Amino acid sequence: MPDPLTQAPAMVDAGTRRPALILAVAAVIAMGLAVRLVPLGLPAGVVKYAGSTLWGAMVYGLIACLRPDAVVRRLALVALVIAATVEFFRLVHAPWLDAFRLTLAGQLLLGRLFSLWNLVAYAVGIAVAAGLDAATRR
User: Fold this and answer.
1) At what angle do helices 72-89 and 116-137 cross, to 10 degrees?
2) Cα dihedral across residues 89, 94, 95, 96: positive or negative
3) Full-model pTM
4) Alpha helices, DSSP H only, in 6-103?
5) Which of 89, 84, 93 is nearest to 125 (CA)?
């Protein structure tokens, strides 16, 4: 049996994987919103980085939904590039963009401030999601 991290499986049924991936992404989004918006009494650092970790996992899941038959490492690399691009995009400032970042949608989608620690959190979320994806392919 091929290694799902490095080789595409012989037959991946996108018709059955895609709905499961969509449900997984929905669950990750729900957890991320709960961590960020519901007063759970968690420490601020946990709220911030758990949300960022879940955001990274969500990006992986969305990419996997688009290409459910792709190699896990490739999906993870694409997700990491997208997450890093969004994080570095926070260094770009324009009045309309900064105004959007002050809205709830802007904060959840783009964030407000650049942080290298967010890149670490995204990488952790992507790695966990990729590991779970690989495990479900075996």
Assistant:
1) 160
2) negative
3) 0.84
4) 14-37, 44-66, 72-89, 95-101
5) 84
- Give me 33's structure tokens: 């919103």
Q: What is the pLDDT of residue 103?
A: 92
pLDDT above 90 (res 113): no
Q: Nearest-CA neighbor of 72 among 138, 2, 6?
A: 6
> Distance between alpha carbon 59 and the CA centroid of its chain, in Å?
3
| Distance, CA of 111 to CA of 55 (rounded, Å) | 11
Q: Which of 14, 38, 25 is nearest to 132 (CA)?
A: 25
Which residues are CB-contacts of 72 (< 8 A; sequence separation ≥ 6)? 4, 5, 6, 130, 133, 134, 137
**Given the structure tokens 């990750």, which residue do they identify?**
28
- 88, 81, 89: which is closest to 123 by C-alpha? 81
Task: Enter the tokens of residue 39.
Answer: 């007063």
Neighbours of 13 (CB within 10 A): 10
CA 122 to CA 128: how far, in whole Å?
A: 10
d(CA 96, CA 74): 34
